[in-house]
DNA sequence: AAGAGGTGCAACCGCGCGAGT
DNA sequence: TACTCGCGCGGTTGCACCTCT
């Protein structure tokens, strides 16, 4: 038994939106706000699927959208964020005010990919193209201190061997529930992922944990990533005391610089108590 | 001027996840 | 616990527009 369709396809329009449809959608959202996309089309008098309305609003009609070409700074920021996050377009978009995930995704595929290739950089791995073709081995180990999740990835040697990813959660949080932390102990979790070619080099410079990473920078790549993270997520200040920083630091969104407020955080991290949550 | 091929982007599709029941 | 619903995400498609020959 499959999922029920999100809308009655026989009675919905598809394809390009007309000005009239746009205006109806804008008027409705101005009057009632966003949300409940499933019922919105009917309420707004549109013969469209709710998903289609949502997409049209988010990608095209929203008043805070920035139209026009991407700047050089935006280019570089997208490249850096992509090197850290991969194809997490929505998270990347959250860091670029006025840009949508769809816009960034399209821009990446049409411009930045080509730009990186012309620089001799593999757009997927962010490593030199010729290096990606070699049989080099790599071990990427990200460790953090006591209260953190330790993620170790071992791609050493062997084209055909399975790399192991070990996520050891020595601290107190349930990573699946995006909560703010309890005293509950969790057991180390070992994930064995399928065979991959050794030339696929993955650098997961994502730190999830409370303390800063300064004691654990061991390579030029990780230093660069760390510098980037610290440049966008500055140390505690008078305005942002250390205790609050600790709460914010646990969130990846914060670590990559989503410090401007709830709107820039991923939805899972928003919370009404003023603190930020794991995600 | 016209056709072919390339490019950019809006829109669609399928799937995963969390919330609710 | 199992199921449905609604939302949001990432990948893909289709088409309008542009450039070249």
Please tell me about this protein's structure:
With 279 residues, the chain is of the alpha+beta class. It contains ten helices and four strands; from the N terminus they run H-H-H-H-H-H-H-E-E-E-E-H-H-H. The chain has helices at 19-32, 40-44, 50-61, 72-85, 89-95, 101-118, 129-132, 220-232, 242-249, 252-255; strands at 138-142, 149-155, 164-169, 189-192. It has a four-stranded antiparallel β-sheet with strand order 1-2-3-4, with no helix packed on it. The longest helix has 18 residues, at 101-118. The structure holds a DNA duplex (21 and 21 nucleotides).
C-alpha Rg (nearest Å): 22 Å
The total of helices stands at 10
How far apart lie the N and C ends? Answer: 32 Å
Strand arrangement in the largest pleated sheet: 1-2-3-4
Please estimate the helix content. Answer: 25-40%
Poorly predicted regions are 1-5, 132-279
Residue-averaged pLDDT: 58
Q: What is the SS-derived class?
A: alpha+beta
Sheet bearing the most strands, described? 4 strands, antiparallel
Short description:
The chain has 279 residues and is α+β, with helices and mostly antiparallel strands.
């Amino acid at each position: 038994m499959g999922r029920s369709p999100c809308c009655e396809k026989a009675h919905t329009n598809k394809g390009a939106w007309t000005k009239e449809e746009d205006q109806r959608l804008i008027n409705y959202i101005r009057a009632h706000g966003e949300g409940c996309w499933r019922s919105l089309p009917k309420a707004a008098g549109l013969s469209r699927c709710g998903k289609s309305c949502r997409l049209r609003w988010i990608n095209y009609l929203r008043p805070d959208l920035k139209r026009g070409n991407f700047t050089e700074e935006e280019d570089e920021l997208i490249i850096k964020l992509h090197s850290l996050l991969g194809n997490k377009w929505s998270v990347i978009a959250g860091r670029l005010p006025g840009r949508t995930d769809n816009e960034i995704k399209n821009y990446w595929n049409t411009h930045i990919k080509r730009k990186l290739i012309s620089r001799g950089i593999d757009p997927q791995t962010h490593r030199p193209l010729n290096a990606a073709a070699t049989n080099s081995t790599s071990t990427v180990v990200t460790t953090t201190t006591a209260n953190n999740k330790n993620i170790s990835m071992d791609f050493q040697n062997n084209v055909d061997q399975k790399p192991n990813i070990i996520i050891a959660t020595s601290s107190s949080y349930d990573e699946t529930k995006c909560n703010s932390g309890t005293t509950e102990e969790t057991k180390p979790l070992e994930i064995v992922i399928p065979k991959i070619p050794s030339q696929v080099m993955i650098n997961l410079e994502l730190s999830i944990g409370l303390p800063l990473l300064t004691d654990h920078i061991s390579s030029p790549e990780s230093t660069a990533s760390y510098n980037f993270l610290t440049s966008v997520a500055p140390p505690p200040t008078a305005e942002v005391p250390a205790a609050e920083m600790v709460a914010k630091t646990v969130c990846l969104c914060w670590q990559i610089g989503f410090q401007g407020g709830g709107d820039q955080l991923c939805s899972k991290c928003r919370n009404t108590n003023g603190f930020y949550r794991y995600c």
